[in-house]
Automatic annotation (TrEMBL):
Reaction it catalyzes: Release of an N-terminal amino acid, Xaa-|-Yaa- from a peptide, amide or arylamide. Xaa is preferably Ala, but may be most amino acids including Pro (slow action). When a terminal hydrophobic residue is followed by a prolyl residue, the two may be released as an intact Xaa-Pro dipeptide
Signal peptide: none
Nucleotide-binding keyword on record: no
NCBIfam families reported in the protein's UniProt record: pepN_proteo
Protein name per its UniProtKB record: Aminopeptidase N
Gene Ontology BP term (one): proteolysis
Ranges for domain Peptidase M1 alanyl aminopeptidase Ig-like fold: 447-552
Amino acid sequence: MTQNLPKTHYLTDYQPPAFEVESLFLTFELLPNGTRVTNRMQVHRVKDLSAPLVLDGEGLELIQVDLDGVALMPTQYDVTDTQLILPDVPERFELEIVTEIDPENNTRLEGLYRTSGNYCTQCEAEGFRRITYYFDRPDVLTYFTTKIIADKQDNKVLLSNGNLVEVGDLPNDRHYAIWKDPYKKPCYLFALVAGNLEEVEDTFITRDQRQIDLRIYVEPKNLDKCEHAMESLKRSMKWDEERFGLVYDLDIYMIVAVDDFNMGAMENKGLNVFNSKYVLAKPETATDADYEGIESVIGHEYFHNWTGNRVTCRDWFQLTLKEGLTVFRDQEFTSDMLSPAVKRIEDVKRLRNNQFPEDAGPMSHPIQPQSYIEMNNFYTMTVYEKGAEVVRLYHTLLGEAGFQKGMQLYFDRFDGQAVTVEDFRNAMADANEIDLAQMHNWYTQAGTPTLKVEKHFDAATGTLTLHCEQSLKGQSAHAPLLIPVLFGFLNDDGRALPVRPGENSRNKVFETEKGHLLKLTTLSETFEFTGLSQEPHLSLLRHFSAPVNLEYAASDEELMMLASHDADSFVRWESIQTLALKNIEDNVARFQAGNGMVFSEHYQQAFQAVLEAKGLDPALKALAIGLPDLPYVFEQFETIDVDAVLQAVEYQKAQIAQTFSGALDKAYLAHCSKKAYCYDKHDMAARMLKNQCLAYLAYGAEPVVRAVAQYEQQQNMTDVLAALNALNHLAVSEREACLSDFYERWQQDTLVMDKWFSLQARSESEQALQDVRGLLEHPDFNYRNPNRVRSVLGVFGRLNMKAFHDASGEGYALLAEEVLKMDKINPQVAARLVTAFTSWKRFKGHRQDKMQSALQHIAADKALSKDVYEIVSKSLE
Ligand code: PHE
Ligand code: ZN
């Protein structure tokens, strides 16, 4: 809590640790309200002969401290709110600290807490200090041994990291287990789980023929929903061996699913803890998106075992070292398991909808932040998703083989160490004997770069010049970024034209496995191409080869041609999206000028061509005919006029529904199937297109027929939810009937009920605001469950642009009150909710004022957490 201003931490203040921990023995005597933790460590000093011993600790009750077996008097140490300080310690010593904690009342879900009657821990980033006094920093690595003692009845299962080395019974119906982790690790990777969980077991045989025990622990009622997670785990293990040559290093791999979790999942060594949302699935309860999310998060946490755990971060400013790299790896995994083209587009959408706005707002930061108040606030789209894009730049520049050489050298050099993003870059550079120093600029500069391209063609000489300029908003002289641009030349029919770099461009244009690549290294640069018998059309930024905003004035005709013919599916998708965006932008201007709206002819033609294209993956069709998401549409405007944008988008949907009702209906029927649910890319693609058509049909003349029929079939959750989504914005009795049927069916299933809550929280209906108030009062609403809170308040602030931005300002007032309430319960979750306000300066007139007032109202609370304080204060600056 913030009586005085919270402290800012700076990257430049980094100091290596003064002490080394040789080993750590933790003993937990578990009780819901008074768990006793005994922490015995062997420590020696490595520098600063006179420095005191300073350990981190928060919310702990200190019982006893022994130094080399002798109990210390309270006068021999200092205890503050955040530290335990021993002014005088020998060069080498054993320290034993006993503390007590209260897991039952831990609603922050950091440290040791209870969830559904079980014990579980969350230590990243700085939660271990809520378990015991320790060096809570990632560059202090040691060997952990953990003894868990607990009542047998309520805690059949006792788990921690590493291998189980001893179990036994104790008096009074208690028992214990001792786990030993043979790998050194920082404390953020520590985990403990205890309770009455059931397990699903399987095995994996590594390529060196070792048998690994795989276990997924869940509440008994969920045993029938683990198969997909287990299959995903085995696929992850196999893929990492085949693509990265990385093999698992313990004899057992455990995953625990819990309902109360702040994030998606956590890569604790050998004992991952997962939000149950990323484990549990069966066709009746989980959608295609859920299945895909499970596969990718299971992969992500598994891949961390090498990129994060075996090689970890020196300090939290290096977070993208493990997260950017591991997201890149999980993206490649999904891409290899499903469709590369679809996955790339989904990832670009995610980046643009979430990361671009973050990077354009007051919380904007480089992928390597230079300072923070609360580290939890920096588990961001920027560090994760833009970080992954930057890793992808190395991959594009070096190719798969070069990238893998770099990875190999990275592990050879740094296994068992805590390192920096520079170490990663140097490994990539040294392994390939090239200079990558300029890549550093991607790590230290915030903001989405703009890449402006102009084309000149000299017909007389057959020479094409491309003039490229890069800029970073608000920064007049930024350090130039190394921007790889994949590209191609096309003739009027969409056929490839030859790419022949001229004299001045030979060393800047390359042939790569992903196609022609232009390497931009300065702020402004001209590239020449010769030997062209006609003026080519440009296909630029193929594969979205760099996380930039491309500014290139293509004509509608060019965009239509690219949408139908380009060799790169990202560019095809992007071209039709650009046509849609131009149409929407045009209509926003018309609306503002009081004129009627128009439905672009060129967009219509492109839409029809894609929808009816023969042999095109239905998933790509679905993505192409979908409109750009609202957050990305908002991003196109300096000042956001919510009413105008919503009207323009609404109009676009209605026009599509009306103009193409026949074709949409036909495509819908063509992709219906009676087949049993299967997690398979072809089936998923068919469902995606069918449901995109259904969504449009709901804006047409007969909005409810198909949706109600699809709901009633109850084929699988993907289709059921798509039907509800289609009905969700309509003021019809069918909507209420289906929603209450859904509630009756699924009342007992927490994850499915989250869907029921979130549907209503994002409804475009007129009483959505009122409904959200009702949801908060609903008996199944629960402030202590982050998923439930996010499914109402997170969804409302992030996805319900209509109700959240209601002209009355009531949406803002509602969220502000809820943030304040949540902050007392779980600051991390509250801080995420408050980000809905951060872009307030971008909004027009009265909305801007009202959002500002809401933020000021939050800021006025004298007892704000550091988490919320940081975001609110930076937003109001
Ligand atoms: N390290 C986790 C991941 O990326 C995310 C996480 C961070 C989970 C902090 C919990 C707390 O998979
Ligand atoms: Zn991660």
